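ok, trying the design again with the full structure, not the truncated one.
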């Protein structure tokens, strides 16, 4: 088999590049000029096509560029009896380059206030094991196709799609309707075994997200899934289960 000249050059160069020659491993090749400049210097080549090939090969070969290994929940759970944190899903992929970095900053859903009270909105903050306002429980509702998400510290409250017709369909905490199971409280897609979309039952083409690449304190709302997935912010996973 004959290898293309560019691929051969990349293979040879990659084999002999030392760690000292590459000081941008935690940055994204497609966002950070530091990485591109390092690539140009090592290739001694201004051809952008050659550079992209080199950066792709470098990314695949270097775990620091691809990102950290994510936590995976392998075992099934009794849904109604466990609490967990809801973390924005992140994987080892060029698609998950947030704010110009590969690194998983570990963003978790959190009550916007400190006590998870009625009417509070939800936001994202750095995940902290055991933090009360990041702990939630899931109540599976037979026949609904989904279930309700409640703060662990105040299980009389539910996450609710508070303004289904508004431009920004905010998610707030409200008293659960235990008599009629209001569809505004029901979310589809939840899983303990894999990453998942959190989809409001009444807006099944929308997903919970915080809009574009994550930053601390951004509010969570229901956005069109296509838009959220284009930003790689439409998926969640459970961590710190207990």
């Amino acid at each position: 088999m004959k290898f293309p000249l560019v691929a051969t050059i990349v293979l040879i160069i990659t084999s002999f590049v030392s760690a000292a020659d590459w000081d941008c491993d935690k940055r994204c090749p497609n966002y950070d000029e530091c990485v591109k400049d390092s690539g140009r210097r090592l290739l001694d080549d201004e051809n952008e096509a050659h550079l992209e090939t080199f950066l792709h090969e470098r990314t695949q070969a270097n775990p620091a560029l691809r990102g950290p290994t994510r936590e995976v929940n392998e075992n099934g759970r009794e849904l109604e009896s466990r609490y967990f944190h809801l973390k924005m899903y992140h994987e080892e992929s060029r698609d998950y380059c947030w704010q110009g970095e590969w690194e998983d900053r570990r963003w978790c859903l959190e009550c916007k206030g400190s006590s998870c009270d009625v009417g509070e909105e939800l936001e994202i903050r750095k995940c902290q094991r055991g933090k009360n306002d990041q702990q939630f429980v899931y109540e599976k509702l037979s026949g609904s196709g989904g279930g309700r998400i409640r703060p662990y510290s105040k299980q009389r409250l539910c996450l609710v799609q508070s303004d289904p017709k508004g431009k920004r369909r905010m998610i707030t905490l409200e008293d659960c309707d235990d008599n009629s199971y209001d569809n505004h409280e029901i979310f589809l897609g939840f899983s303990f075994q894999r990453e998942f979309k959190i989809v409001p039952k009444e807006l099944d083409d929308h997903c919970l997200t915080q809009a574009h690449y994550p930053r601390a304190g951004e509010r969570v709302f229901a956005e069109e899934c296509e838009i959220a997935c284009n930003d790689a912010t439409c998926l969640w996973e459970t961590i710190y289960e207990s």
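Keeping the full-length input from now on. Confidence is low (pLDDT under 50) at residues 5-22, 62-81.
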